[in-house]
């Protein structure tokens, strides 16, 4: 098809489009594309018709002729209709560039206006800034846009490009808008990036992270150039110029501080910042930031080095700022003129207004608002140093040094003079704060200062003071002399250095020193030097005192003259007190004491006066006053923290006390008041000064012991013993600690070592007896019956040795004796009866005729003879009598009397249970009455309530429950109360409550045997026999303090295994633990026939028939004796069963004759055969008849066997 056809069809499409005949236009364009697919105009027209569905035709048209505007305009309309704003903006920007290139200014501006509108409505701040930047003078469109005529403000509608014309001919508003957007955008970017990075592991500190992010953001920031454009703009007002200049300086400062010190760019940025700041300062612009950078950056050694004129100018330009108020206060404090010309009336009025405020308070208030200002911190440190507030100086100077480090990190510039100034202030404070505690820290600072500046006057003076305290008078004198030569004569610092030099000289050559001090005194004229004159006169007096002889009267007059100059000068009172007490004739102790008191009242640092006062009060036994003096002396030397604490209140370090005697006194007083932690602390501090003081170590060990810190106590006492091995008191305290920690054998050795040299020491004898008693209890609980018996006897004999030496400890002695007897009474048999009988006879002889009326009607010990058998009941009777006598001879204080009544009640109740049938019917009630009396004396004792519950256990269950609950109210963690309460519930078949109580006891003390036994009984009651057996197995493995647990465990094991059909070898392994615990029980309770019988059966199962025969024979003997006394049918049946088992064992051993005798005994004891008789009797009869038949058969009596065996059927 020819090109004429395409042109005709395109003309048709264009005309139809103009007439809005879209179908005709579309068909014409389509015909062209069918024969000429690359026709630009056809693609553009067809893209218009298919725009809602597809933009491919526009893209194809653009690819064919990218410099033609038609397709670009079409696709822009497409993007606008579909809401694709980013694509629209890019297209508009392209169209704008095309119009600019073609020189069509109007179309270019229209595209720009539409682009700006689109970005404002649908773009981000960065996108808006990007398109607004086309209106700036440095825009690539600047040449095109500048051809626009100025806008006509009288006819706003005359041009469609009015806004662009206004922006081109006055770019200031657009620049300000761009600046505002970039500021917000950068602030947001820094914050968001910081939040994103701050939680990364191993990242930098928050401050460094902010700097790193700042370098990234501010390094490419357009703000500096934009600020400069505003500053250079002809339409910028003065106010806008000042604020913009401030923003530029802030922007430069932030970037300058953020750059690392190694960056070459940091130097250039710093120079640019300095130029801006210097310009502000030179022309006197009231910009706070610029002035702050200017002043903070100065490196000067004194406040005067900041140039007072600059400081005055700052106050004048920025009077409402905190720094201006602080400077005003400082000028007034130092007496410096606030204005250069004080004669002007306005200046006088201003000065009067400022002077109405307290200068010091003004400085402190201003400093509180300027925590990051180097200048404010320096002024505050200097003022506090003048006020002698050394702790504040230390805190402020340390803060200042941190600010110096921060400034140097930020700027990369060293400010050595400022650092030195803070170090001088810090060193001076350390020198004078509770000297000499901080002198080591002061010396390190002073050495650094003098190394950098050997002629630094403050450094020389400070080092001189430190050397004074160490007694290096010659070296100190040289430093003060050098300082005097460096300071202008007549100044306050010069006179003080001269005085200190003379004072040092007086310690070397007293006459020359006194003469030099007198010369200094001549320089101290005027009322403002009264305190200095008082000090100088006292020093002259001290020199005269050292010269001795008649000079001491002259010294007295100097001391008096010193007080005339300043009646509050404390050292003069101390010296007068020494004069009155040591030199006056006759001595005047009353006046001396008054002088010492006055000196100490004025200054607690007067340690000499304080110690003499304390010694005087101690001689008069005024201990409260001794404590007051000691504590005030400690406060005077700075206490524990030496005047420096960290922000959380913790002590900053360990300091050597200067008055160890005061700490000793406080330690002893706190020990007497039972404040052990404070006592330990005081002794520890005292030991820092006197580490070889043996008595101090001894007291520290005692305090540790009473505080329950036994390991530390032993270490301290070991050190005391090392310093003085012959101190028996130290050995005694070591023994006491060993006793408290359960190291009873070691404690016995310690006490015996003392008694070898001091056999009559009552306290040691009583401690030895108490240790022996506790050892006996421990041995009994662990199953060592013989050792336990020996220790009980040893405790009683030790007490009897005590009674021969002393009668003032009867209550304690008889308490130990009674406890030992009560412990002995729990033994079933005695290993060494003669020894036990001996101490029992001795006890009876001492208690003969000593019975009281408390229990006389219900208890009277039976008189014993040589033939009276030694039984546990007899020992228990002696224990009851001893407890009774203890009350007679013991203390009547409530606690002691309550304890004695409790012991008597428990022993009496135990005697009632042991001696049934022969006691008075009211004996148990009397025991309960005694226990109630004990509770009246000490109602808060859980032990007493538990004992009362035990006494009520069988007869009064509700009362018992109440008693156990009262015990738990006083001690909710009392494991005995919980266990006994559980057993009470178990006894009365409340299994659920029993289980809860016993479980609580187990939780409180997992090693408490009785709780496990109780749980086993609960399990058995619930029918859980396997669980019960497991619980009992655990219980018997804990300790031997519940013997019946052994018996119960063995019984259950034997019962369970008797019914098993497993092989004999496996059964034996399970029987061994039962045999072990039952054998242990038999040793502790050899008179229990049930246990002996059961042990015999266990031996039979373990293939030990000989031993089984022995155990059952012993059980039969005990049962026979018991039956003869009681004729109890139950005992008779047990006797019958034991004979049946014995006969079986003998039959197995081949002793057929003895077996036959036992079987016949069984048949003789069983009732006549009765078809309605009990099953047990029938079984026993069958076993006996069968055994008889077998025995007769083995003995050859076949006929008798034939006669007896059929009866088994």
From TrEMBL:
GO terms for cellular component: Ski complex. InterPro entries: Ski3/TTC37 (IPR039226), TPR-like_helical_dom_sf (IPR011990), TPR_22 (IPR040962), TPR_rpt (IPR019734). The keyword Ligase does not apply. GO terms for biological process: RNA catabolic process. It comes from Boletus reticuloceps. SMART domains: TPR (SM00028). Keywords: Repeat, TPR repeat. This is Superkiller protein 3. TPR repeats lie at residues 660-693, 694-727, 975-1008, 1136-1169.
